[in-house]
Structure formats: structure tokens, C-alpha cells
Amino acid sequence: MQKEKGPYSCGLDAAVDVVGGKWKPMILWTLHAGGTLRFGELRRHISGVSEKMLTQQLRELEADGIVHREVHREVPPRVEYSLTALGGQLNAALVPLGEWGERHLARYIATEHGAGHGAEHVPEHGDVTAAR
0.70 exceeded by the pTM? Predict the structure, then answer.
């Protein structure tokens, strides 16, 4: 059963609803990098996701128009997943977030997933290099 959407307070609220959770961004990123993939290929590329969770997340992304599911009528049946144009746009919006994560990955690994992030350097006004 699909959860009811909205009401949203802003565009970011709606976007987070569509891409929220641990697995949806990973699904988008994998489909962007791999193009059209079968379910098993997706699951192999996304470490730690269960079959049930991947199925649920793909159904939600399909219902939101982000992922296209193509069923090929052959024996054995073949199902492939790819990003829609809307999914490609959403993935492009996630690129800066992924870049931010790459820049700061070491910090979060070193502090046990952000447990000590309160002691970080806060740049002074105009000190943009310290923020990178």
C-alpha cells in the first residue's frame, strides 16, 4: 500500500519525501552509473540491502515516476530497471550532496559516523577554504 503524499511545506520537503531513506539514493546512484540493470545486478551493487527492501524501494520510486520498470515477456522473465528523465534530474540534484559526502567521508569514519562532529572547526566569516 502506497503511503499518502503531502502536504508539503516547500520543494525540499517534497524532494526528501521522494528520495528519503537509506536505500533510495543508493538505487538512484547505481542506476545512474550502471544504466539499465536487472534486479539481481542492482542488489549486487548495493551492499547490505535485502531483497524485500530493494523491492519496496523500487516500487516506491516507480510509483513516483523516478524509476522505469521494463518487463520483457520471455522465458525466464526478465525485468530491468532504469532512471526516467525525472529520475535523471533528481540524481543530478544529488551529485553535490555526494560530492559533499566524499569531501567529508574521512571525518565521519574517524568520529564513528559523526559521533564527535560537534568539535569541528567552524570557519570565520569569509574563510571559505576552511569550509571545504
Answer: yes
